[in-house]
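User: Predict the structure for this protein chain, please.
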Amino acid sequence: MSTISYEQPLNERIRTFLRYEQLADRFAFFARQDKPYDTHGALLTLIEIFNLVSRGDIKQELLKQLKRQIDALELLADQPKIDTVKLNSILARHKAAYDELHEVRGQINDHLKSNDFISSIRQRTSIPGGTCDFDVPEYHHWLGQSFTQRRQELMDWIEPFQVVGKGITQSLQLIRQSVPFSQQVATNGFYHQSLDPATPCQMIRISVDRAYFPECSAGKQRFSIRFLTQSSAGETPKQTGSDIEFKLACCSF
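Assistant: Here is the predicted structure, written as structure tokens:
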């Protein structure tokens, strides 16, 4: 059975982390390609990263998250049958990420706020087709330079964000690996489950046959999942009436 995995964040912090992760992956993909349109895709994604970071204090949110996870990991040290080598390795990476982020002064995106070149492109991205050569000729000129130059400048612009990306990757990896998938059945395409308020779930992970996709609704005490089908993009999705086997993980760390 060919499956697709989905992740549903259950708080705003994890939602922001997942969005950042997706944007960072997209940036890395486009930045590796040598065509001007790929560079354009990378730069637009960089601007999305800038805008996401500008919406809140992602640095402080990540510091809180890493510190909370470090404290939880340290409590595991005295547990019987714990793999101390693996635990110490995870702790070392978390502490290094925390220390590196803590040393950053100011906002993560300060270097782009004063960049006139990036600002001129940002101002045009809200206009459909707003980055034509007659709108921002300096951008058209830059896209015509060598791939080596374009890529190097892209890497220079993304570099200050990498410390955030490293911390987010480690934090999300720990959450994802906190519990294994369990086999579940959605009766008539519907599944619901109560949550333990004492150990708040941070992320719901779902793996299901690619013929279906989940629509999640979650609160502090319970969540529900409807499985829908859609044979083409122009068709209105409909909840299936079949019993659907899927894998589920309620992750928290």
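The chain has a mean pLDDT of 95.
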